[in-house]
Structures are given as structure tokens and as C-alpha cells.
Amino acid sequence: MLVHGAVYARGLRRYSTYRAATLAGVLTNSVFGAINAMVLLALFGARPEINGYDATDAVTQVFIGQALIGVTLIISGPSLDLSTRIRTGDVAMDLLRPVPLQSWWLAQDLGRATFAFAWRGLPTFAVGALLFDLAAPDAPLATVVSLLLVAVLGFALRYLYTLSGFWILDVRGLWTLMGFVGPVAAGMMLPLALFPAPVADVLRLLPWASLVQIPAEIYLGKDTLPGGSALGGLALQAGWATVLLGLGAWVTGRATRKVVVQGG
Amino acid sequence: MADPIAPRRVPHLVPRPVQDYARLAWTWTRTAFQYPAGLALMTTGVVLSVVAEFGAVLVVFWRAGELAGFSMAEGMVVYGLAAAAFGTADLLMGNVERLGERIRSGELDTMLVRPVSPLVQMATDDFSPRRLGKILPALGILAAGLWWAAPEWTAGKALVFAVLMVSGVVICASVWLVGACLQFFVADAREAANSVTYGGQALTEYPLAVYGQGIVRAVTFTVPLAFVSWQPVLYVLDRPDPTGLPDALRFAGPAVAVLAAAVAALAWRTGLRHYRSTGS
């Protein structure tokens, strides 16, 4: 546990050196958030309520989504250094460590996510609150827990994408694909409430929705959550986190049996 | 400027940089086809990105019925124009956004000693036909939208519309180049420039009237993205400008394109003159 604490702290410190990039990220996320928000405001100008969402709910979700881009890295390319290390073979070094591969990278990535949330997520949300009318959190405590689960889930998904590199050497195609599936299925591109109801109901249950749609519904206090309450939403997120981390551990085992380390 | 190497005997009908561009782009295209599976996968990725974006546009129009007075058919024309213009500009010029990397790695120095314009080299480097995966579906959406919206066509109107479309591509490419040139001065400016380039694309995918007068004026008179999809749509659908700007503006596209290209050329030259190699 001590090791993981140290890795977490290093992850946090490492990303805190990229100041200009962080600032540029806030700018980009805010611009995209504002554009999305204005389109949705025009939409809700024509239809005041869609599936329990009003304009304020939709705009709030847009900025929750933009604020979580830095945390989940849902639209970027290979974002774990692990994917380069698998390609170059440096992963052999990681496997020598007396710490499981997955928890090592989880600790490092949570450090990164913490920094991204504080310096990229919160400022983006603040810009949104300055420019638009955003809703206040319905259940602040549940929202905080939900955001923690978002960070874990964001890692677990990317870890699985990354591990595919043990089997397919060029993971760029998969990343490109996931870069588009992810934001749509997560409710980042548009709130899932706008989709046809049967589609939205299926997407809500998939792991990507737990990255944006579910936390947004917890924040907004919607009864479309599984079980109709924040607790149901948290249970869904925690369930996916357990399943995906379990899957990650299993795939790691399969993958490491495949690695052949050549001496020298 | 005197040619540093002995000029080849080629007809002077086509300017030298254009010849270079075509030759280098063709070389990179052949390179891309050496990895057909990778190319197919990445093209599929690009097509999917259009599907996702356009899907979002459709959902918004489906829910709204009419968005800022524009129907779904008209919205398709707007989206098709914006995506086709940005896609084409990305194909022709998109790679210049990697200027910062080239400066850091020293590749720009290599380009400067070659007898071909560094801008041509930068734009064609890693030229990839996968970007057609954006342009072709976008043109399809544009055609479908025009067919559905059914404006009245005359030969003259079709010609003017084609000119406005080309102007849109030139404007996008110019904005892209100016954004890239910032990296001569600020090394980490790439993502900030993205908020204008990709952000500009996201903005022009919807009828600009959605955003209100302030933004329409900003993208008409400062970063002239209004001439990429908005003004051409007003022209082809023969609609008065709902934001209250003069209707004559829709014909300003070509002039704005020339101006934008001139500004971009100036930015590039200034940047290049400012550039001091590390000499390593």
C-alpha cells in the first residue's frame, strides 16, 4: 500500500509540470462546452423539456462531461505510457516489480486524474458556471463518491484497451474506434436523455455511461438512475469498476504468460 | 528567387510548389497503401467520427423539429458544407499543426535545407487518403440535404455555390495555418489552437443563428468562419440573414478567402523569419 501511495504521489507531481498544456486544455474544453451548451439551449428553446431534462440540466451535463475529459481521457489517444512500453518491450521491467501491473498503473493514473480534476476539470466547470446557468448538486456526497468511481472506471477501461497491445501490435485503430464510441455512449457528446428511449436505456447500462451520464444524473438527482436513486447509480458504477478491474487482472495474467523476455 | 538546383525541364503552366505538392502527396499516398489494413482501419475510424458527429446533429434536429428556424434538411446542408470544407482543408493542410513537434525534433531544419518549400513539405508530410473518409460522407450528406431542401437551381447559382465552397476550404486552411504558426512563438500552443480549428469546425456544423448575434459577428469579422458554411447556406437556400447582417455578405466569400490566405502567408513568413534553429 505504501508503494502505491508513493506511485500515486509521483503521478500527481509528474502531471503538475505540464502547466501550459493544462491551461490549453481548460481553454479547449471550455470552448467546446460553450458551443455544445449554446446548441442545446437553442434546442430546449424549441422544446422546453425532453425526458425529464430541461435546458439547465442539459447544459450542466455538458460541462460535467467537459470537466471529466481530463480525468477519464475518454477522447484522447493511448494515454497510458504502458502502451508504448508494451510495444517497445519495456513492460518486461514493469513485470519484474514486486507490485501487480494493474494496481501500479492504477495508482499512477489516479495521481494523474487527481491533478486533472483539480486543475483542468474544476476550472472548466467554473468557466461553464460563469457563462451559463448551471444546476447545483442535488446530492453532493454521492456526487463526490461517483467522481471517484469515474476516475477508477476511466482507468479500468483504458487499461483494457491498452492490454490489447499484447495481441494486436498497433493499437491505434482500436483507440480511434473507442475514441468515438466512448463519448457517444458516455453521454458526453449529447445527454443520453435526448436519444430515443430504448437506445438510451441500453446505453445507460454499459460501462461508458458510468463515466458521464450516471455521475451527471447523480449530480442532477434524476430518477432515471437504476433503482431510481443515487444509490442505484453508485451501485452500477461500483459494479462496473469491480467487473472491469477483475477482467483487467485476468487479462494481465493471460498477457504476461504470452510475454517472452529475451535476455541481454 | 533563383532555383538552387538546376531546374528540370517542365512546362511552366503549373507553378513549381504545386508540382512539388502533387509529387510529395502522391509519394505519401503510395506509402499509406503499403499498410492496407492500417489504412482501412484508420479510414473506418474517420468515417465513424463523421457518423458520430452527424448522428448528434440529427438527434438535435429530430428533437427540436426546427433549430433557430432551420429544418433538418437545411441543417444537413450546413453540416455537410462545414465537414466537407474542414475535411478538405485537413487533407491538404492539416499536417502543418505538427509544426511544434518538428521544431522540437529538429526536422524543420532538415526541411529548410531541401530545395522544396518547407510549407509544401510540412503540409504533405504524412499526407493520408484516410481523410477522404471524412470528405466523401460529408459531400454525400450535403447532396442529400440539398436534394431534400430542394432550392431552385440555375447554372449561375450552381457556379457561385461551387466558388463559395472552394472559398470555404481556403478559409479553413488559412485558419489552420495561422493557428499552426503560433507554434513558432509558443511551443505548446497546439492544443490552444485546436480550440479555434476543431472548435471552429464544431461551431460551423450548426446554423450560426443558434449562437446569437455576438458570436456571429465575431466569426464574420475576426476569424471568418461564417463564410465556410453559414453564408453559403444562406445563399443557396435564398434566405435573408436572420442575425441582421447585410445579405450582400454572402458574396464576400472569395474576397475573404483571398484576404485570409494573405494573412496566413504573412503569418508563415513572419514565423519562419523569427525561427532560430538550435543548430544541433
UniProtKB/TrEMBL annotation, chain A:
Pfam family, one: ABC2_membrane_6
Keywords annotated in UniProt: Membrane, Transmembrane, Transmembrane helix
InterPro entries: ABC-2_transporter-like
Protein name per UniProt: ABC-2 family transporter protein
Residues passing through the membrane, by range: 20-46, 58-77, 117-135, 141-161, 173-195, 230-251
